[in-house]
Design goal:
about 750 residues, Rossmann fold, eight-stranded mixed β-sheet, globular
Length: about 750
């Protein structure tokens, strides 16, 4: 079939954005059906190099698929209306799968080829998110697809995403064939993304002498090999040869020369300082696999992906045992200690790995660039970077722990250590962090009180800010004026400690702030309740140290809070050390949270005789899990099963918010939870926290109380109601609608 001439300017004008599905649909619709279109490199020029590359597998398969040699599985992404696939098919390569995200062109190609080429497959699919299993294809044949994704100025995000998918679906030993104009930004991405573990070759595609094309087409071939191995690029390009665009060809030759220098440095045995991206691409082998004794220095972070860059060392424990506490951990070394033998020497670093009891430890070194930066900001910046270094698919879905030389705590006072039959080991302590600012209630430095659950790898479960109690000032003055006996001095010291109290206007957990900000979704209903004097029924499952319900009571005085806590000992600690107190507005129920919700639903049905409630209700699930085998750190799996979700919906009746603090490192578990919520609730929103894997989900059975049409106005209403400061605008920018 002869190809038609290029479409007129008005048709090409539809492609203002080459990455837009809608633009391509318009383009193919305007061109009409029944013919093919090539942007560059037509079959007569491609036939010889492609058949030389693909070999006789197609012919063998066409002659007799069962006679021995299997025909290669070929994927053609972004196939468009090119005749390339049909030419290959007619040559004998029958196992060809074509994908394009334009339904218009796929429908047209199916009509054209269904009868004449019945074995060829066509799929509507985005090539950056392909629905094929790993290792599905022997050959991926890209003709202009990568070029289209990487318009100048568009960045590399889509191109990188596509190449990651291409690597995934390609078999070991398979070939990724890219027909490209090799513009500098495209070639640069190909050279870096296929630097480690791939055999790469490049050649120019000859042009017919009668056709003076403005651009030279190149065929870049990458063969999937062993990770970590750096191969020299095989190039048939020659500066003395004639190309249809010499400027373009010379630019490619120069880029290959620069890449050769880079590759030689990697393969020379010198300990080159790698980047995180180098590690992700396989520079030191498969990161998902623990390699005992592996150690490599690298740079963590870059301007496009993080606030700061860090010197780091990846260490896989020399002896892999079953006694590791963590499958992956982070150890932060402050600048003041970076030169100590324990951290600066290789031998010392292995001692740290052993004491940290981590199968893989990433040591991160702080320097002058990180001076005066709070540790919370550092951890927030590091968290998404460290996730890419986490090995395998861990059985326990727990947050990656951050450790530190001195753990960042300058001063620690353990108030109580105890063990509960329900929760396990717990610690209550007062701490002063390094780089903590003072001036909080006349204290020289900020002091925090922490509740730590041992079952969660010693991570801080609750944190409260301590401030000076103004009511204790008179007592302190009297003590200071008393006679200076040793006994009275001891009493004065004790009284000084007792003069501190919890600041219940402070939220130590960012996900608690996100829960408050998410109330913007029902701000109008809250405002109406406040104005009318109506109480808003709010149930919180999980007390912890009681910081969140205490903040909620003071911040929104019109809410009526019922907290359910399973462990009586946790409730005692909240009262004893964190200033928690119950009253008519804030009540505590000791018992099972699921049963409490079920009983509340039954009570509501009895009281209303089945009629719908006219008041808004809020239900918050803020419970961590003692069983991490389900893939959930928060909440326990029973709280996301259909039976409980249905009860939660019934509790809210006609409206309100069901709020879950979700923590899971497994994307499949997260998707399962989201899918269940979508099936039961009509509306679903997500607020993803950047610093870690916490995600707050907001579900509602109807839009009755939702302010979904004007969130800016809703944010303003909520801020007018709040008695304590919360950065609602910053949080709400991250709110995403899932349904």
């Amino acid at each position: 079939m002869a190809t038609t001439p290029p479409p007129p300017a008005e048709i090409l004008g539809t492609l203002g954005d080459f990455t837009s599905r809608e633009n391509w649909d318009k383009f193919f619709a305007l061109r009409g059906t029944g013919d093919s279109f090539e942007w560059y490199a037509e079959w007569p020029n491609l036939r010889s190099p492609l058949l030389a590359l693909l070999g006789d597998g197609g012919a063998a398969g066409a002659a007799d698929a069962g006679a021995g040699a299997a025909a290669p599985e070929i994927l053609v992404p972004a196939c468009g209306s090119s005749a390339l696939s049909e030419r290959l098919y007619d040559t004998g390569f029958r196992r060809i799968t074509n994908v394009d995200f334009s339904r218009v062109v796929v429908a047209d190609m199916l009509r054209r080829h269904a009868r004449t080429r019945p074995e060829m497959r066509w799929r509507v699919m985005d090539m950056t998110e392909m629905q094929f299993a790993d290792g599905s294809f022997d050959v991926i044949l890209d003709k202009g697809g990568l070029d289209a994704l990487m318009e100048p100025g568009a960045g590399t995000k889509l191109g990188t995403k596509y190449l990651n998918e291409a690597k995934r679906v390609l078999k070991s030993g398979g070939k990724f064939v890219c027909l490209t104009l090799a513009e500098s930004h495209v070639l640069g991405l190909l050279l870096s993304e296929f630097r480690f573990g791939w055999d790469m070759s490049i050649q120019a595609i000859a042009s017919e002498s009668s056709k003076k094309s403005a651009f030279q087409t190149f065929m870049v071939v990458m063969v999937k090999g062993k990770m970590g191995v750096v191969q020299t690029i095989k190039s048939s390009l020659d500066q003395s040869a004639e190309y249809c665009n010499m400027k373009q060809a010379n630019a490619v030759i120069r880029a290959l020369g620069n890449e050769t220098i880079i590759r030689e440095s990697y393969s020379s045995g010198v300990d080159v300082l790698l980047s995180l991206r180098d590690l992700q691409l396989g520079a030191i082998g498969d990161l998902k696999v623990i390699v005992p004794g592996r150690r490599r220095q690298f740079i963590l972070g870059e301007p496009e992906t993080s606030l700061y860059c860090y010197k780091a060392v990846l260490l896989d424990a020399k002896k892999q045992t079953e006694t590791f506490v963590y499958h992956c951990g982070v150890f932060i070394v402050p600048k003041a200690r970076a030169q100590e033998w324990l951290f600066a020497s290789e031998e010392g670093q292995w001692h740290v790995v052993e004491s940290a009891k981590a199968a893989r430890l990433v040591m991160v070194f702080l320097d002058s660039r990180h001076a005066n930066i709070g540790m919370d900001i550092i951890k927030k910046d590091l968290s998404p970077l460290i996730k890419d270094l986490e090995p395998g698919n861990p059985e326990e879905e727990a947050p990656i722990p951050f450790m530190m030389a001195g753990d960042g705590v300058k001063q620690r006072d353990v108030l109580e250590e105890l063990t509960s039959e329900i929760t396990g080991p717990m610690v209550v302590e007062d701490v002063v962090y390094e780089n903590a600012d003072g001036d909080q209630g006349s204290l020289p430095e900020k002091m925090f009180r922490r509740l730590i659950f041992g079952r969660s790898s010693g991570l801080v479960q609750s944190e409260a800010l301590l401030i000076r109690d103004p009511h204790s000032d008179e007592t302190d003055k009297k003590n200071k004026n008393a006679s200076a006996t040793s006994k009275k001095r001891r009493n004065q010291k004790k009284g000084s400690k007792n003069s501190l109290r919890i600041d219940h206007s402070f939220l130590g957990s960012s996900y608690h702030s996100s829960i408050i900000s998410g109330l913007s979704l029902v701000a109008s209903a809250l405002s109406a309740a406040s104005a009318s004097g109506e109480k808003v029924s709010t149930t919180v499952i999980g007390l912890g140290a009681g910081c969140f319900p205490m903040f909620l009571r003071g911040c929104l005085p019109f809410v009526e809070i019922e907290v359910v806590e399973l462990d009586p000992l946790v409730a005692e600690l909240a009262k004893k050390y964190f200033g928690f107190s119950a009253d008519e507005q804030l009540k505590v129920h000791l018992g099972d949270g699921i049963k409490f919700v079920e009983d509340s639903v039954a009570a509501n049905h009895s009281a209303s005789n089945g009629s719908a409630s006219n008041s808004i209700k809020i239900l918050v699930i803020d419970v961590d899990s003692s069983d991490l085998s389900s893939g959930l750190s928060c909440p326990p799996k029973n709280f996301v099963e259909d039976l409980f979700l249905q009860k939660a919906k019934e509790l809210l009746s006609e409206g309100g918010l069901f709020i879950i603090n979700l923590v899971s490192r497994s994307s499949s578990v997260r998707e399962m939870v989201v899918s269940r919520l979508k099936a039961i609730f009509e509306h679903l929103y997500s607020l993803q926290l950047e610093e870690d894997i916490n995600e707050v989900l907001f579900a509602s059975p109807s839009e009755r109380y939702l302010d979904i049409n004007n969130l800016d106005a809703a944010v303003a209403k909520l801020k007018d109601l709040l008695k304590f400061p919360v950065d609602v605008e910053l949080d709400i920018k991250k709110l995403q609608r899932l349904q």
